[in-house]
Design a protein that fits this description.
This protein is an alpha/beta fold and 275 residues long. It has twelve helices and twelve strands. α7 links the parallel β6 and β7.
C-alpha cells in the first residue's frame, strides 16, 4: 500500500533531494553510499526498478497516485510518496512536473574498470563530455547498438544526473558503466594502460589526416575494442589520441567536417560492433 504524505512544509529535509540539492551534492563523491539521483516519468522509473535500483521516495501530483503512477507505486510498497496539487509542486521544484512523477533512488556501487572489462568485447569510453544531453543520448545508443559497457573519465558529466537519465530514456540503467579513475589526473594515463591490460585495442574517434576509415576491416576484426569519444568542442585530447592504437574517422560528404558526438557514437557503435 502506498505511503502517501501530503506536503505541508516545503522546508522538510525529506524534500531537499527534489528542490534544494545540486547534482554534485546528489552525486556525493566523498560519501558514495549516501549518493542519490532522480528519475523522471513512470517509464524511466520502471527501468530503474528493473535494474535493481532502490527507491527512496517519490514526488507526484495528487491525481497521478491513482493514474500515471499507479503501477510504479505497486512496485514501491512502503516508500514515502510526497504529493500536492500542481501549483504547490511547481513552487517546490521550480518547474511543472510535465512527466508526472519523480523518484529519488540510491546510487549503486559501481564496478571497477577491471570488473566491467571482464567478458566485454566492445566498450565506449567518454572523455570529458560535459553536456548531459549528449551523455544520455550516447548511453541510449550504447544500449541499442551492442556496446557491452561504458567507461566515463573523471571530468565527464555524471551519467546519473537528471537530464542524462531522462534523455537516455532509462537505458543508463541497462548498460554497465564505471568511472575510469577517481581524479582527472588519472586520465589518459594510467587509464589507457588499464584498458590495454585487459586486452582492449583502443580506437580514438578523431579528425586526423592520418586516421583510418571507420569501415577498415582491421577494426571490426579486433576481438576487444574500446571506442573513445571526446568532448563536444575540441574532441579527444592530443595525448589521448597519441596513446591509442587507432585513430578513426567517419567519412563525410557535402563538405561536412564532423558529426555531433552523440550522432558519431551511434555510427561508430553500429559499424564497429562484433559481427
Amino acid at each position: 500500500m502506498a505511503n502517501v504524505i501530503e506536503i505541508t512544509d516545503f522546508s522538510a529535509p525529506e524534500l531537499d533531494v527534489y528542490a534544494r540539492l545540486t547534482e554534485a551534492q546528489l552525486l556525493n563523491r566523498f560519501e558514495p553510499a549516501k549518493g542519490m539521483f532522480i528519475a523522471e516519468s513512470p517509464k524511466v522509473i520502471h527501468r530503474a526498478l528493473d535494474g535493481g535500483y532502490e527507491p527512496v521516495s517519490l514526488l507526484m501530483e495528487r491525481k497521478d497516485i491513482a493514474g500515471a503512477a499507479r503501477e510504479v507505486l505497486a512496485r514501491c510498497p512502503g516508500v514515502p510518496v510526497y504529493t500536492a496539487d500542481e501549483e504547490l509542486l511547481c513552487n517546490l521544484t521550480g518547474y511543472h512536473l510535465t512527466r508526472g512523477v519523480l523518484c529519488a533512488l540510491r546510487r549503486p556501487a559501481l564496478p571497477t574498470v577491471e570488473q566491467l572489462c571482464a567478458g566485454a568485447k566492445r566498450l565506449a569510453v567518454l572523455e570529458n563530455i560535459v553536456d548531459s544531453t549528449n551523455v544520455g543520448a550516447i548511453f541510449r545508443s550504447a544500449a541499442a547498438l551492442h556496446m557491452d559497457g561504458v567507461l566515463v573519465t573523471p571530468s565527464c558529466c555524471d551519467p546519473l544526473c537528471r537530464r542524462a537519465v531522462r534523455v537516455s530514456m532509462g537505458t543508463v540503467f541497462q548498460v554497465p558503466w564505471a568511472w575510469l579513475g577517481d581524479a582527472p589526473g588519472q586520465w589518459p594515463h594510467p587509464g589507457l594502460e588499464r584498458l590495454k591490460a585487459q586486452g582492449f585495442a583502443t580506437a580514438a574517434m578523431a579528425l586526423d589526416e592520418h586516421a583510418c576509415s571507420i569501415d577498415d576491416p582491421e577494426l571490426a576484426a579486433q576481438k576487444k575494442l574500446a571506442i573513445l569519444l571526446g568532448t563536444e568542442g575540441d574532441g579527444l585530447a592530443k595525448t589521448t589520441i597519441a596513446g591509442c592504437d587507432y585513430t578513426v574517422c567517419i567519412p563525410m560528404s557535402h563538405g561536412v567536417d564532423s558529426l555531433n558526438v552523440a550522432a558519431a557514437s551511434a555510427v561508430a557503435f553500429w559499424e564497429l560492433r562484433v559481427r
